[in-house]
């Protein structure tokens, strides 16, 4: 399970950082999930190893433009590149009507169906080998975190149950072992019910804009990674209250420490933070502030940073494959 | 008067070309006009010497996404960077309602007013030192070309008229010479009426998607530069009729030759044309096809190409200042 950051700037793009988008890559195969889709996300995908054909679903945390204005163009490009498979979009109220209005206005006819799921009514949603649920956060507009858990981590067949239910060994067992549903003596057996995990599931929480990290306490249980905004440092937030509804690096770090989170990834930095550590404020100020309160593994996202969560729950940077301009 | 191309790809971005946008820079000062605003135009502006503060007006040729999906993000970023000056947007029906719905959906409150002008009812519009008019083209949706003419090229005061009307020499003459309106004996004198051009006006026509270049015959009179799409070569257009409503390089070139146009700039190329001339089809195929029919000065646009139209009507490439990533 990899995270590949496609945009890590708050509000507006800079020359080094695009606005919000992060890809969650499945452990097997080329499938990936997209959380947020700021303007230019499809351009970032072009510069990554990701393909719009392999996109499994899109999740929008909230309706602010830097988190969703890239949707219409990405959907149109997926269509022009020949996608025919349905695409689920999990998004708060407002996004569906806007996407439909935008496609209508621009007379864009997608050759594949969009399957909208309202975040507000998501419940415990399953897609492929992931279970996904949403947690409400605190921001100027309704904002959500999405939790992604492996549904069936390295499963083994529950042979004790099969024997107890008198289901004979043979091809049926093989199909159930693959997670397929089968018919047996007029009954439908769900593969899912006959598989047992052999290790704890990996779990990642990716949060939208939020000024109360503590709202994530329950979501962060049995979670290896939290991706959370740290728009400002405390010093800058105190000095310039131009925008509200965001978290400081300090507040997120203290929360992560309080719930003993093993890995914390900060993102969505105000464009004022400079890459050059000799200029002020710099992105190193964000790191220092967070590191003072949080003693787990701390990462600051940048565009095209790729992190891999292994089966033991360790998060490590992997060398990004980045396509060069031709 | 400069043209600076910000996007030159048709339909979808590529790693080398963004979707449609072109800046027309005024001869004096830092003011510029933007024709079309595909997704990622604000990102291209960040990589150029242009500033959103100095943007004079936006013109949209038609409602297809690759020509307008960048508008909401660019407008929001202009607001976040502190713009307060009103921004005129000349656009076909549909764009105004969509922009307003998009800003409402995303709860984006711009700190400056938008002044929408419907292209359909533009007439002879004046903005700063330019006169702008629209010509209807032929495409799958209503599409327009915009003609930009210098309103007052290197003006001199019409002293003969002033003397004939008995307007006394003095500060009044100086104000009229600057193009200002003045009061004289209870009458309002318009500076514009007392200035004479000392050379022919420069004139540039920038066309939207169009499959009938001959519709531009009247617009191209006394015009030094036509910017027109050449989405396909004839060979490709004949082989793959997937999309209609576009021009071949051949058709645009033949038209430009027939009206003795001095400078032709082709743009909006299908992503299938490769930059590498050894691959097929290549962008060189487009050039060769156009050059076979057109014998004026031919340019193929690429992102960040900058062309300068001098006062004698000569169009020449200038070295692009391109900002480097920090």
TrEMBL record, chains A, B:
Residues bound to Zn(2+) 2: 66-67, 209, 268
Textual note on the cofactor: Binds 2 Zn(2+) ions.
Needed co-factor(s): Zn(2+)
Family per record: Belongs to the RNase Z family.
The protein's name: Ribonuclease Z
Top-level division of the source organism's lineage: Bacteria
Active site feature: 66 (proton acceptor)
Keyword check for Zinc: yes
UniProt: Zn(2+) 1 binding residues: 62, 64, 139, 209
The enzyme's E.C. designation: 3.1.26.11
Purpose of the protein: Zinc phosphodiesterase, which displays some tRNA 3'-processing endonuclease activity. Probably involved in tRNA maturation, by removing a 3'-trailer from precursor tRNA.
Reactions that this protein is recorded to catalyse: Endonucleolytic cleavage of RNA, removing extra 3' nucleotides from tRNA precursor, generating 3' termini of tRNAs. A 3'-hydroxy group is left at the tRNA terminus and a 5'-phosphoryl group is left at the trailer molecule
A single MF term (Gene Ontology): zinc ion binding
